[in-house]
Amino acid sequence: MEPFSPLPSVQADPYDWPYAGGDGWNQGNTALLIIDMQADFCGEGGYVDTMGYNISPMRAAIEPIRAILEAAREVGLLVVHTREGHRPDLSDLPPNKLWRSQQIGATIGAQGPQGRVLVRGERGWDIIPELEPLPGEVIVDKPGKGAFYSTDLELVLRVKGIENLVLTGITTDVCVSTTMREANDRGFECLLLEDCCAATDPLNHAAAVSMTKMQGGVFGS
Length: 221
Prior knowledge:
alpha/beta, five-stranded parallel beta sheet, 8 helices
């Protein structure tokens, strides 16, 4: 196999990415991570919609993500999709997470318009058709907010030789931010695509982006 050619640095804030410059990333050591673009989070009748939040900000991120996904596929980046959800018997659902969902009127495991809420195998749990994974693309199923917790994501990335992560998805302030922090702690160089992320509250989205830029890029750029 011929060696991969370096790609040009990406103009980003607070620093041009990756930190090592253009020699630091290529098609072989970089992955696109698409976090939780599921009907439960951005579809009508899903978990977030049932909680009473406006899902239009999440849906606004679909087209930008689709564009970057098509570009990533064209140049041959590893594509990783994540899905948050629980086993049908809810044996991996912490009691406090269940309790919080009950308080807000969107009980995890209860029957809803998209099937049982946040349960693996249900319609709401699956990735939306606009961003449907292709055969061979990595899908990581996670029970929590972070994509590294109780999953094999790190193992997959290490085996594939991945050093850099380009992060997209929802929500910016919860699952995306948690995953970016986890990745940074593991030594991955992270780039957050602001227009490819969204939150239920635009202020939360802005705050999460702002925190990323603190201290010269505390979690990445």
